[in-house]
Amino acid sequence: MQATLNAAVAPAYSPEVRQLLFDYVLQLADTSLLLGHRLSEWCGHGPILEQDLALANIALDLLGETRSLYQYAAELEGRRRTEDDLAFLRVATDYRNPLLVEQPNGDFAHTVVRQFLFDNFHYHFLQQLQTSPNEHLAAIAEKSVKEAAYHLKWSAEWIIRLGDGTEESRQRIDKAISKLWRYAGELTTPTPTEKALQDLGLIPNYTALQPTLDAYVAQVFAEATLPVPQQIAVQLGGKQGRHSEHLGYILAELQYMQRTYPGMQW
Amino acid sequence: METAELTQEELFQQRIDADQRIEPKDWMPDAYRKTLIRQISQHAHSEIVGMLPEGNWITRAPSLKRKSILLAKVQDEAGHGLYLYSAAETLGASRDQMLADLHAGKAKYSSIFNYPTLSWADIGCVGWLVDGAAILNQVPLCRTSFGPYARAMVRVCKEESFHQRQGFEIMQTLCEGAPEQKAMAQEALNRWWWPTLMMFGPKDDESPNTARSMQWRIKRFTNDELRQKFVDMMVPQAEFLGLTVPDLALQWNETKQGYDFGEVNWEEFWQVVNGNGLCNHDRLQARVDAWEEGAWVREAALAHAEKRRQRQEPIHKSGPTRKAELPQD
């Protein structure tokens, strides 16, 4: 079965394009893995039971997307690595997630802002990715976009509640926005890999996506009575393996079992 | 039958004896109501506190598949907590009050969650043994006399038996794996065996609530009956896994067609029940912290809903309107 799938994919792309796709699919997988990991840290500690459930739900969706992506990456690579090898057995500088998703949970406001920035990109991006000529990516996008729509509704709703809630919630969300906004720009700043795949028409063009993202932020922030931050210097690096100090600690936990007991089945 | 001369209490007992369900609006003795609120809220608290020892391994689960299963499982526990709190609310208890009692240390939760999860095999043991014991306690509750509780338990039991299979499968994978994995499984069993036997509560002659709960058909088996069932069910499973149950007195008894087993350490049982287990303090503190640190979030949601009400706007213009996502007031 695995061999048939490989054979079906193999002749379609040159080795160079396969490498680009592999790097890129890993980037997407690392991104949902890391954000799912962060959200799962909330499990049992949410501000109210219903939100504990919601956070776990989003984490589970992201984990599901992660697995589909790593499986496809493993296929593209064709070196018999498994989803777990890719998730657990790489070094920090090989992870390709944007900086935003490795940022700590902080208080609920930080989690909500991080989620909203990601969901806004993720949802609108997946909508476009559904029409990719790469059938694997299109299929993964088609499944995940429905979940991402729910995630975005959830985080937008909380931006509004916290922005237009109490004085304290307003202060907290202001603080979270000023801390996290600098990481948003990386999502839509293409790396050379992304640029190459965009030129090949395999993934959506971020420049074309930007007005949609901005318009949704403007709409939600207006309802939340929050000003949209302007002119914030963008932090880049994660998508090319240059991470914040947080990633190492996440990996120490995430990889603990696989590193301690190499080569075993679980 | 001269029903006209029967008291309300006698009529109530008659319905119970006829195995009729009692519904929230029916007359019921105060003590029945209180017993149920105590039991259901205790059960709900156990689900919520029980998220902590298992949640402890989500970020370290050894594979993506195991991580997904574990996260989904812990999420199920939160769901169980929700429908149990709702069942207790039909008796007039408020969720906030029940939580306040938990946080103040007045309400109990299952003592088993005051033991730490130290290795990945503990996640297997919690599913296999702890959920296994919970199922034995809970399956009879699907026929318990109070309707909302019985119906909640039908759903809970379905999910719990799925969890138990998952736990057993973790253990089986470990036992069929490398020597280190098998050792991990045995070491975890050594720690979890006795505490799970304690989950059935004190011995029958020291269980103050059993007789009346049996009379009201809230409970259908005694603690010792269930404990015996559990041992009889689990010993063959441990043998199948190739694990040794840590009880030198364990022996098949042909006459009773069941196992004889050693005495539970009741001193330890009461110590943990009374708050002196390794994790009692930390588990409760984690719940209190989550509640207190979440206060501003709940207040913001209420304040926002109130602003919308005053502006006569729908509660959620741009978001989902599912009730489950709204904080309870």
Characterization of this structure:
The complex is a heterodimer of chains A (266) and B (329). Chain A is mainly α. Helices cover 67% and strands 0% of the residues of chain A. Chain B is mainly alpha-helical and 329 residues long. Helix content of chain B is 61%, strand content 2%. Chain B contains 12 helices and 2 strands; from the N terminus they run H-H-H-H-H-H-H-H-H-E-E-H-H-H. At the A-B interface, helix 3, helix 4, helix 7, helix 8 and helix 10 of A face helix 2, helix 3, helix 11 and helix 12 of B. Chain B: Residues 311-329 have a biased composition (Basic and acidic residues). Chain B: Pfam families: PaaA_PaaC. Chain B: InterPro entries: Aromatic_CoA_ox/epox, Ferritin-like, Ferritin-like_SF, PaaA, PaaA_PaaC. Chain B: This is Phenylacetic acid degradation protein.
